[in-house]
Amino acid sequence: MWKGRFAQETSALVQRYGESVSFDWRLYAHDIAGSIAHSKGLVKAGILTADEQQQIETGLLAIRQEIEAGNFEFKESLEDVHMNIESELTKRIGPAGAKLHTARSRNDQVATDVRLYCRAEIDRIRSLVSAMQAALVECAERGGETVMPGYTHLQRGQPVLFAHHLLAYVEMLNRDSDRLADCRKRLNVMPLGSGALAGSTIILDREFVAQHLGFDSVTQNSMDAVSDRDFVAELLFSISMLGVHLSRLSEDVILWASAEFGFVTLSDAHTTGSSLMPQKKNPDVAELTRGKSARLIGNLMSILTLIKGLPMTYNRDLQEDKEPLFDSIDTISLALEVFTEMITGMDVNAAKTTAAASDPMLLATDLADYLVNHGVPFRQAHEVIGKLVAYSIEQQRAFGEMSLEEFQRFSPAFAADVTACLNLETAMTARKGIGAPSPQNVKSQLARWRKALTTE
Ligand code: ARG
Predict the structure, then answer these.
(1) Which residues form a coiled coil (predicted)?
(2) Are residues 418 and 308 in the same domain?
(3) CATH number, domain at 41?
(4) Which residue, 117, 173, 203, 240, is the most exposed by fewest CB within 10 angstroms?
(5) Alpha helices of 150-261 — where are they, by DSSP H?
(6) Active-site residue 374, yes or no?
């Protein structure tokens, strides 16, 4: 659009290669907000009259409305969203429009737009995370005091409450949300006014402009400001971590929904059939989410690799930051929404989980603790119970079916009250230390989360 020193038109192929408007058009609202704030700065600096600023603002708002109504034509020949909007504005309002780009470069402009975009998306994603946490809490509450085995190495370890297992994910999601909030804090700094790389001889009140855009402060080094994409990498890491957590939950749900476990039932609306096997009910939502986490990690790798070899300051490579960013934001948003729905429709199969948790072997640790309470050092107690486990397997008789005399063959510390610790309910109630899954603890954790999630 601006020919300047160029005698030749850009080759059509180069235009196609270099255009970004086909994807960066989605920055339009932030680009317009940035331009309006900049125009106010230009008035304060005496570059624009109040009337010119008014023409710019009205023109830009009209353009925004047209974009939102789907009546605006973005042109590939104008390369990116910034030039499309500015050139249309100038076409409409003339000289005032041509003054808008004073003391500004697309380098500080795009850095500003992307930060504004990330800020808004972080707020949106965090509310989706809260909704998902609320769905997990609600599903946990529906499960009541249902017990299930807790696993390490995918081997049955100790009994837990189903709710305790789900609340583990509520904790993970909370860290994800905090990470996003932290990332937001660091990116809420305005690069506008850094120009191409060295600011401008026309001095703008950057803090005044920043205030208009809701930034907490302004960047302090123009070279860093135009080339910094740390915030994109941080955001993509935070999103990847969130995706990895969803992927872990996916894996649990996939196992639970299998005939081998049968721990949960997913609603028909969130499963799919097989084109060949009529009996199938597949947990596709969970599988897709596990799969999509790979994309999120890939996008993070793209941005880190993109940045690593760049000399100061802005390089056109940086245009490649947008597609991975947009893709991760779209992917995680949909994953959170669909997962929230799926969890809302998921029911625990208490009969199955309780049967699995009633495996007496799950209380072997409780028996060792019993001996410890009767004065046996833990290492020794562990050894004694190990032998008792082997005996139980060999005899094909559960702990509960053994006589006191048999117990005492392994340790004289056993007394008649040993049967009490073989009761699942007693065993659960006994796990009452902070963070452990006693029904009382789980109840107060559920209450804590319900309160935290409704007062947000
Ligand atoms: N579309 C470009 C980007 O996203 C805008 C900045 C272009 N700056 C430049 N000097 N060519 O990075």
Answers:
(1) none
(2) no
(3) 1.10.275.10
(4) 203
(5) 162-187, 206-213, 222-227, 230-256
(6) no
